[in-house]
Amino acid sequence: MPLLGHAGKIQVGIGTLRQEKLTSHFSEPREASAPPPKPPKYRSGRILDVNLADFKTHPLWDILIETVRNNPLYPGRAGWARETILAKNPNITAKELASKMSISLGEALVILAGDDSE
User: Fold this and answer.
1) Extended beta strands in 7-94, E state
2) 8 to 11, 37, 93, 114: CA distances (angstroms)
3) Taking the complete model, does pTM exceed 0.70, yes or no?
4) Which of 29, 58, 63, 111 is deepest in the core (most CB within 10 A)?
5) pLDDT digits (tens, 9 = 90+) for 80-113
6) 3 φ, ψ to 5°?
7) 31 C-beta neighbours (distance < 10 Å), count
8) Which pLDDT tens digit goes with each residue over 58-80?
9) How far apart are CA 48 and CA 55, in angstroms?
């Protein structure tokens, strides 16, 4: 039943509209033909095998270091990795470190490079 609201406008009971929306939403069958999820447009770095020595001579190495070090979480992650993971396994690869810490391969490479002097 419509109600007269402020300034004489006709309003429909809000509870009725909400109930209709809920009822129609759950009573209608959903479409089974949803589009499949799209694959990412980039390849994950975690599947690459990299050599730290090769990366240090690459022209983009300095940009990678700058980018990783500007991440506010980097100092804590680097310290924890050095004290915990690298102390137990000094020969860990960048790929393994990235996987254990759930970080990018680039960040793992910078942590393994180890020279934090700027």
Assistant:
1) 10-11
2) 9, 50, 74, 73
3) no
4) 111
5) 999 999 999 999 998 899 999 999 989 999 999 9
6) -115, 145
7) 6
8) 888 999 999 999 999 999 999 99
9) 13
In angstroms, rounded to a whole number, what is the distance separating the alpha carbons of residues 57 and 59? 6
Q: How confident is the model at residue 32 (pLDDT cuts 50, 70, 90)?
A: low
Rounded (to 5) percent helix, strand, coil in the chain:
55, 5, 40
- Whose structure tokens read 């419509």? 2
| Token couple for 103 | 């970080």
Half-sphere CA count of 28, side-chain side, radius 13 A: 8
Alpha-carbon span 117 to 104, nearest angstrom: 21
Helix (H, G, I), strand (E, B) or coil at 49: coil
Using the predicted structure, report yes or no on whether residue 53 has a pLDDT greater than 90. no
**Which residues are within 8 A (CB) of 62 and not within 5 positions of it... i.e. 6 or more apart?**
none
